[in-house]
Amino acid sequence: MNTKAELIGIARKTRSRAPMESLDRVEVTKELGVNGDYRGKLRRRQVTILAKEDWQAACREIDQGDIPWTERRANLYVCGIVLPRIKGSKLSIGGVIFEITGETDPCDRMDEVAMGLKDALTPNWRGGVTCRVVGAGTLSIGDPVNQII
Fold first, then answer.
1. 52: helix, coil or strand?
2. Band of the pLDDT at 125, cuts 50, 70, 90?
3. Domains of the chain, with CATH numbers?
């Protein structure tokens, strides 16, 4: 079994409710977060990160195992790591450093995707984390993910 933590998805949206655009590579800056994503100017919520294991657990809970991760509308999709649940914790993905600013609270839109998904994402920060960029760089699918101690 491969236990390497890595980046397995990158997505952005140009405005609220816009379709998610999946990418293989993207620039991430301190000023704008994920290049081209409309939320990047929000200092405490520049980038959102979702763990595959949490997403799959929530989807299984409502018997919906095949919902694409982009329906969660997160920017980054990672696997093989338990995302830190403490504000101020730091993650590195490739050469980019993120500071956890909070939990990505599930919204009512999740129940538009699948009834019960909002509640399934609520426990244990399953909906992912919000971050601010503290070290800029380029992200690519397959980049390693590490918690910075």
1. helix
2. very high
3. 6-14+22-148 (2.40.33.20)
